[in-house]
Amino acid sequence: MIDDIIHKGSLSPDKICQLLSATGSEQKELHRAANNVAVTYRGNIVYYRGLIEFSNICIKNCYYCGIRKENKDVVRYDVDEAEILAAARYALKNRFGSVVLQSGERTDTAFVEKINRLITKIKEESNGRLGITLSLGEQTEATYQRWFNSGAHRYLLRIETSDARLYQSLHPDDELHRFSNRLDALNNLKKIGYQTGTGVMIGLPGQTLANLADDLLYIKNTDVDMVGMGPYIEHDNTPLTAQKKHLWPLEVRFNTALNMVAVLRLMMPDINIAAATALQAIDPMGREKALKAGANIIMPNITPTENRKHYLLYDNKPCTDESADDCLSCLNMRISLVGKETGWDEWGDSPHYFKRCEKSPPH
Ligand code: 5AD
Ligand code: SF4
Ligand code: FES
Question: Rounded to the nearest whole angstrom, what is the distance from the C-alpha of residue 249 to the centroid of ligand 1?
């Protein structure tokens, strides 16, 4: 069946649903096929992106997220520029190839300027060697352009769900949280020339397999270069948890998330797909399992240890007490355990981007 899919090309929503619910030997076959495709198109290599979660201050109120503005129990932090630069230096020294700057969403001038300075300094200090991915939510086209001009070359903005109604049910009904803004932002990122990443949460209350099949088709049609997607995990102090809606069993969320990675790999062989940290909140071997099902990117956490426990988007988030060194040696071991190699000192850009833009890779 899997061979049929790879060789006959396009997948119908029904067929995708069938694959997403694969278990047992069928699931094993699906993951093996996806891993083969990943190895053929992206090598037997895992690329690192050093993740710096530099601030949990956020102007938004997504109903699922632990650091939403209205959560008054969160101790807010904002790592200063010197410490962020030190984390970037750590990534360079340890041959990560690139860093991801992630935080809650802010659009004020001080924030936009801070990011701009950081991008410029990281580029200067590393002689252009360290790649920079941003994961800073919705910004104006002018801001995206400015950061791009300063040297950021990749941007992650998850669509969260491609179903407009489900999206709206997960967010307040106001101008800050419009589905159409999200779509516009993604289009702007692509237009400006970023390597663009998106993704969804899997197993949200009210979400169906048909929604997830549509998500995969949306991702394919949007023609993005990178995808990060993982299971939805409750956070105790959020409106979505308080609504006590019917939840997907954790095991089903987990297996469906792995199957999403595998099916997407079959649909988009040459993109980068991250093994989401949230998988590890359910299964201690979650990320390794994703690497064996078609994922090829890992984001080792290099956030200063004292801040990590305050960046809790969901409960049971792994690596909150560890240091950057702990996560690095832990991941090195886990990657060799699944028989893969690490792409040291490489940006590991997705060839999909260069095909899409007909550019040649810089590295
Ligand atoms: N469970 C899983 N993922 C979450 N995110 C936010 N809250 C949760 C949660 N409760 C994800 C969103 C966001 C990314 C930074 O974290 O998809 O885009
Ligand atoms: Fe803010 Fe992002 Fe959390 Fe939404 S998901 S509340 S934008 S940090
Ligand atoms: Fe952080 Fe294993 S990856 S402790």
Answer: 18
Length of the chain: 363
Nearest 5°: the CA angle 197, 337, 47 is 25
Residue nearest to atom 2 of ligand 2 (CA): 104
Confirm or reject: Cβ of 157 under 6 Å from ligand 2: no
**What CATH architecture applies to the domain 43-202+215-245+300-357?**
Alpha-Beta Barrel (3.20)
Ligand 1 centre distance from Cα of residue 296 (Å): 20
Mean pLDDT, residues 49-75 taken together: 98
Task: From the CA of 137, give the closest atom in ligand 2.
Answer: 7
Mean pLDDT within 272-293:
97
Beta bridge partners of 274: 228, 297
Question: What is the overall mean pLDDT for the chain?
Answer: 95
Which-ligand-closest: CA of 135? 1
> What is the model's pTM?
0.96
Closest-lying ligand 1 atom to the alpha carbon of residue 233 = 1
Closest atom, ligand 1, to C-alpha of 157: 18
**Is residue 345 classed as helix, strand or coil in its secondary structure?**
coil
Q: What is the 3-state secondary structure (H, E, C) of 67-98?
A: CCCCCCCCCCCECCHHHHHHHHHHHHHCCCCE
* Distance (Å, whole) CA 47 – CA 347: 8
Cα–Cα dist 79/72, whole Å: 19
Give the start-to-end residue ranges of the domains of the chain: 43-202+215-245+300-357
